TrEMBL record:
<feature type="region of interest" description="Disordered">
    <location>
        <begin position="124"/>
        <end position="150"/>
    </location>
</feature>
<feature type="region of interest" description="Disordered">
    <location>
        <begin position="188"/>
        <end position="214"/>
    </location>
</feature>
<dbReference type="GO" id="GO:0005576">
    <property type="term" value="C:extracellular region"/>
</dbReference>
<feature type="compositionally biased region" description="Low complexity">
    <location>
        <begin position="124"/>
        <end position="142"/>
    </location>
</feature>
<protein>
    <recommendedName>
        <fullName>Phospholipase B-like</fullName>
        <ecNumber>3.1.1.-</ecNumber>
    </recommendedName>
</protein>
<keyword id="KW-0443">Lipid metabolism</keyword>
<comment type="function">
    <text>Putative phospholipase.</text>
</comment>
<keyword id="KW-0442">Lipid degradation</keyword>
<dbReference type="GO" id="GO:0009395">
    <property type="term" value="P:phospholipid catabolic process"/>
</dbReference>
<dbReference type="InterPro" id="IPR007000">
    <property type="entry name" value="PLipase_B-like"/>
</dbReference>
<keyword id="KW-0732">Signal</keyword>
<dbReference type="GO" id="GO:0004620">
    <property type="term" value="F:phospholipase activity"/>
</dbReference>
<comment type="similarity">
    <text>Belongs to the phospholipase B-like family.</text>
</comment>
<keyword id="KW-0325">Glycoprotein</keyword>
<dbReference type="Pfam" id="PF04916">
    <property type="entry name" value="Phospholip_B"/>
</dbReference>
<keyword id="KW-0378">Hydrolase</keyword>
Length: 214
């Protein structure tokens, strides 16, 4: 049920899968359907979140996004490592990522819209830039359906595509507060260390000058 039809203002989506299939296939299929059926709401949420981080965390934005990119690479390496194949924890992570990969598929294949609807500058704009796509519908090099031919995934034709990195950002929103705080502490410690080093250099220079005068 879409949020416009519910008094709470919240959308509801229930997907039932079949135990005939492996758990990973069930979760990937559920993720695919979620992405297909709620693509417009997902993209609206993405726009809201990049706008928030554009205005509220302008300095830390690039570090946050780089952290998430590094984290995903590490996560996928760990879950596919032979050392984690017998771990219940990593088995659960593999299932979660199967659902995430299913979510990415329909949203990554949609038709692009104009970039004007997305942030135009700053770190959040750089994260959001690929959501509009490098080419617009009808641009040179983009395949167009022939007359009478239906576009793939027509339900999504009005929604810009989102990359895997952008969806990973959305799925990590619950952790961004902690990530931001940690990055702020690291940045503050680096600034303090640089200030101390600069102070020592200045003090050394002053002592050297005094000795020269003597």
């Amino acid at each position: 049920m879409d949020m416009v039809h519910d008094a709470s203002g919240m959308g509801h989506l229930t997907i039932n899968t079949s135990a005939v299939f492996p758990d990973s296939e069930q979760l990937k299929a559920a993720g695919f359907l979620e992405g297909w059926l709620t693509a417009e709401r997902i993209h609206q949420h993405f726009q809201n979140m990049v706008a928030f981080y554009e205005t509220s965390n302008n300095e830390n934005g690039p570090a946050q996004f780089q952290f998430l990119a590094t984290q995903e690479v590490w996560l996928r390496h760990q879950m596919n490592s032979s050392d984690t194949q017998q771990s219940p924890f990593w088995a659960y992570i593999r299932l979660l990522m199967a659902q995430f990969d299913g979510l990415v598929q329909p949203l990554h294949r949609t038709t692009s819209l104009a970039a004007a609807s997305l942030p135009q500058r700053g770190p959040a704009a750089r994260l959001a830039s690929s959501a509009a796509g490098a080419e617009q519908p009808g641009a040179a090099g983009e395949e167009q359906p022939e007359a009478g031919e239906e576009e793939p995934l027509p339900l999504l034709s009005r929604v810009p595509h989102l990359t895997s990195a952008q969806l990973y950002f959305l799925c990590s929103l619950g952790d961004l507060g902690d990530i931001t705080a940690a990055l702020n502490r690291r940045q503050a410690m680096a600034s303090q260390a640089a200030s101390r080093q600069q102070g020592r250099q200045q003090a050394g220079g002053q002592q050297h000058g005094q000795q020269g005068q003597q």
